[in-house]
Amino acid sequence: MALLPVAEALKRILDVATTLEPEDVELLKARGRTLAAPVVSRHDNPPFNASAMDGYAVRAEDVATVPALLTVIGEAGAGRPFSGTLGKGEAIRIFTGGCLPEGADAIVIQENVDASGPTITVRETAAIGANIRPQGEDFRKKDILLEPGRCLTARDVLIGASSGHAKLAVVRKPVVAILSTGDELVPPGNPLGPGQISGSNAYGLAAIVEAAGGEARFLGIAHDTIASLEECINASDGADILVTSGGASVGDHDLVRPALEKAGAKLEFYKIAMRPGKPLFFGLRAASGKTQYCVGLPGNPVSSLICARVFLVPLIGRLLGREAPFQAVDAVLAEPLPANGPRQHYMRGLLDMDASPPRVTPFKNQDSGLIKSLQRADCLVVVPENAPAQAAGTPVKVLKLDI
């Protein structure tokens, strides 16, 4: 059976995935969510002509010649507008954010004024519009301020609130059920018995899921039996994605694929021309009345997380309608690379984005058993299958690990 190229495998996954439905969330919970609908302003900002300084609202013609004596007839504070109309020779005490009174067309800052009771002496002229923020200067009612597909930042939340929205429409988070498999696994923190290892993959995968915008749900550790796997798989009903770790190869105890098929999954492909991570599969399963995407990752921790970055993260991005941040970036090799074999290689390395162009240094030792090497890396250098030796300075594609 020929190994499926990475690009073809990823295409098959993304071709069957569609953006999830929207939901409304309160502003306090909107940061980091993916916008599902345009944010349209519900009013002008500022909603009125506002003072940009503490001072006095005046008519510019009254202070065209200084010193000018004016009579203060009232006050306009933030949220407390002056209700009358400013006349010739008059001024209104005004504070930053206050609504410009009718009849006024300039603000004299308080540092340029001497006050004595109800009379002020203005020592500096002020042109029409001085120290005034005009209504709608920032944005207008019905302006489109944010487009769908955007991962909302604190600044986006701010403008959403400023434009009159208490809630924003965002794409529902994909629920990703994560299942570890293997009799050799014990929960982290537990003492290791003979032949046992800490079950670390689920925790790294959960962190990747959350960073990509999904909601991780840990199903636990399944034993190497069809019955145990089937029970855990059925517990994933309701999740948008089921991710399994381990049991994806062809050994006597690699039972995840037959267990999934028994639970109703239809496998779309198996085995990828990828290094590390050849034993990876993808399928679809009807669960709780909707399609569940099933991604089977290798049990090796390094292979598992690299495969998750290559396949699971783009799948989450497609379900969110947000893909660009998860795609490869361009860089050049800081050091030469030897020729590659028949599988596309994802090499751990360090990316220098401050260089022009960005430069990437692949690690010398790419052994998939080196977890510390993955922890030190911040990117994956994509080396195509059967690529010849490449000199320093050769352009390459790079996947950032921190998303």
Question: Explain this structure to me?
Answer:
The protein is an alpha/beta fold and 403 residues long. It has four domains: 6-20 and 173-325, Molybdenum Cofactor Biosythetic Enzyme, Chain A (3-Layer(aba) Sandwich), CATH 3.40.980; 22-42 and 139-171, Alpha-Beta Complex (Molybdopterin biosynthesis moea protein, domain 2), CATH 3.90.105; 50-133, Molybdopterin biosynthesis moeA protein, domain 3 (Beta Complex), CATH 2.170.190; 328-400, MoeA, C-terminal, domain IV (Beta-clip, Beta Barrel), CATH 2.40.340. The protein has helices at residues 6-16, 154-162, 201-212, 226-234, 256-262, 301-320, 371-376; strands at 22-26, 39-40, 50-51, 55-58, 68-76, 90-94, 106-109, 113-116, 119-122, 132-133, 144-146, 167-171, 175-181, 185-186, 197-198, 215-222, 241-245, 266-270, 274-275, 281-287, 290-297, 329-333, 344-352, 359-362, 379-383, 395-400. Helix 1 (6-16) runs parallel beside helix 6, helix 3 runs parallel beside helix 6 (301-320) and helix 4 packs across helix 5 (256-262).
